[in-house]
Amino acid sequence: MNRPVSVPVVPGHRTSDRAPATAGSTRPTAAAVLALARAESVRMLRHPAVLVAVAVIVLPWVYQAATGDQGNQFPVLHVESRLVQLPMVLLAAGTALAVNLACLRASRQGVDALYEVLVLPRWGRVAAHLLSVLPVALLAAALSGARLFQLGTRSGAAGSVQVWELLAVPALVLFAGAVGVLVAQVTKAVAAAPLVIAVLGLVTLAGLVNNTSRSRWLSPVAYENEFAAPLPTALVWRPAEWHLLWLLALAALLALVSLRLSGMRSRLLTGTGAVAVALAVAAAGMQVRSMPRALEDRLATATERPAAGQHCRTVERVTYCAFPEFSGRITQWSDVVRGELRNVPADVASAKYTVRQRIFPQGNGTGASVPPPADSWAADDRAAGTPGAVTVGTDWTEGGHGADIANNEVISFAGLFAHRLVGGGQLETDRLTPVCGARAVVTLWLAVRATPGTEGAYSSLTKRTFGGGVQLPVLGSAAGLNFAAPEQTVVTELLDKPADEVGSVVRDSWKELTASGTSTERAADLLGVPVPKTDPAERGLC
């Protein structure tokens, strides 16, 4: 009868976790670490947590590409460079979970004691797990780079890819991997890593919510106000290079702590840790500092006096001025202008007009109506020889698709140019300018019917508007146009009629329709649509 034989653990090897590597053992240990790292890398790339994260990130991109991705026809690449970091948080979380489970594999399977007889010490196995995260980081960089390349091929793309922002993606994954390995050295509890990941997720969420606080840069991902219109690259204050150093320094520091806890003893380890701490402190300080005064001055100048920094081009007697990065948008602006000019009399269409791109950071997503620097804009236009220029922003979209803010900018620009044609374009600076009577009907109809895109943008706006009437602010400021419900009702009726038919009546009756005293009822009668029942309460300021 066979008796069970106990296999004693060689005590001499049990101390290997704590013994420093000698000069003679460095080469075989390094080779063993690299061999184990290669094997663990393959396991990492095949891990369900990593595969699911990749699928969740990539499948929406694939679907958007297959369906035309109308919402991203006009990407701003330096904005997309930071936006691509957000979905990569999922891959970072999957990486942390996967590498943590890999480190705990022996413990979960109850074979910790057998690992003690291995030639490779514990700190060597930890080093291999840390290295196994590198391929996932490269995968993250490849995915984000491919996404930005795809967006960069769009004809409506503006701006440029920011390398520091792009490199933050693999750095985020390396940081998450280092977190997963460190948790495994601190505790063998499988539930610990998900809890730590959840805490880091809450920290990231706090940074997303407090997107105007400088402390957001200390979270894994530094977000911006999603309601803010894009700025030219040179006017953006994002210390992305310091955030990259912050993530890399934290990742290195966590990795060094893991090696130390796993038994590695080395002066180089101590010295490298001191350098990592110094770099992390320096990066933290550089991230949370205020915007440099020179950049503040450039931003103020570009906001109040943009003409000096813009390129202008004339298309069919209309001059378009834009910041250099956004000059490609002139094609879309001219389509809107051309669509409006074809429905006005020849003498009105042949006059000279100017469209000028402007920025107004104070009006974006502030929740308050801030007056724009109208006097500075007017003086700047006069100095540039383009008085009465119509404002257009940096946001754009294929009408009816994309973000709500971009749709608002499309229809607002169309409305402002139509107001220039109908009423001269004068706006009140501290509140919305009410457009009344027949002028309101013609202005709004010209704007909506300019292109399919403006019609789609108007439809998007009305679906989000309640209580009747339409407001078209200038770059989210206090100024803009205000249309009451009765005029909007007439325009809604006109949209059901052929555009050429309505346009013919508008051209023939232009003088009467654009006269200040012509009523909404008279406009409806001239244009052949039902006369709206006017409730005095709906007249607003008209």
Characterize the structure shown:
The structure is a single chain. This protein is mostly helical and 542 residues long. It has two domains: 28-290, no CATH class; 299-538, Neutral Protease, domain 2 (Orthogonal Bundle). 57% of the residues lie in helices and 6% in strands. It is built from 24 helices and seven strands. The strands form two sheets. It has a four-stranded mixed β-sheet. A hairpin with a 2-residue loop joins β1 (311-315) and β2. α10 (163-186) runs antiparallel to α11 (192-209), α10 packs parallel to α12 (240-261) and α19 crosses α21. The longest helix is centred in the first third of the chain and has 24 residues, at 163-186. It is elongated and about 95 Å long. 43% of the residues are buried. The model is unreliable at 1-25 (pLDDT under 50).
Question: Keywords for this structure?
Answer:
single chain; 542 residues; mainly alpha; Neutral Protease, domain 2; 2 domains; four-stranded mixed β-sheet; three-stranded mixed β-sheet; 24 helices; disordered N terminus
The number of distinct helices, counting runs of at least 4 residues, comes to 24
The major β-sheet equals:
4 strands, mixed
Classify the helix fraction into a percent range: 55-70%
Measured between the Cα atoms of the first and last residue, the distance is: 107 Å
Protein name: ABC transporter permease
Transmembrane segments: 48-66, 86-106, 126-149, 161-183, 190-209, 242-261, 268-288
Region (Disordered): 1-25, 362-395
Organism: Streptomyces kebangsaanensis
